[in-house]
Design goal:
Length: 159
């Protein structure tokens, strides 16, 4: 599902004029996440995003967010992921949608780094991904409406 920039406009309401935007839908699998992430990064580059730091952050965040949907939201089932991006002069805005499980507590996970000053065998298994997401992204929001998880985040364009 590729959509035109006009169909992505609700993602960036109030955020300025788009240089480019797209929306996609794909199956929630690790293979599809890898493929779709590469497609998005290529299209961002083709739209004029050539800042290595911003491209790297986008790649890390897309991998972490989309794989979290596969592993947690659709842990016991299958489904689809929708993702939209909207590129402005100074920011890339992303929005993901899925119909999987709601986030625990219907809220974003704790953004703090899990304790890492403990013995290796006592290290927590999870939580580092959301810490990384919160370090690299801005304006992170989550809501669940009518059975749909909606996660939005922004990445400032920096050289």
């Amino acid at each position: 599902m590729n959509q035109s920039p006009a169909e992505c406009s609700d993602l960036a309401d109030g955020f300025g004029s788009a240089i480019a935007s797209r929306s996609y839908g794909f199956e929630a699998t690790h293979e599809a996440v890898r493929s779709q992430s590469q497609t998005i990064l290529t299209e961002l580059f083709n739209a004029g995003l050539s800042m290595p730091d911003t491209i790297s952050k986008s790649e890390i965040l897309l991998g972490e967010v989309l794989n979290n949907i596969v592993e947690h939201s659709y842990a016991d089932t299958t489904g689809d992921i929708e993702i939209s991006w909207f590129l402005t002069d100074d920011t890339i805005w992303f929005e993901t949608r899925d119909r999987g499980k709601e986030m625990p507590g219907a809220t974003l996970p704790n953004p703090d780094c899990p304790p890492n000053d403990v013995a290796l065998e006592d290290m927590p298994e999870g939580g580092f991904g959301w810490f990384m997401i919160n370090q690299l992204a801005q304006e992170i929001s989550y809501q669940r409406t009518d059975g749909i998880n909606v996660l939005k985040f922004a990445i400032p364009r920096v050289g």
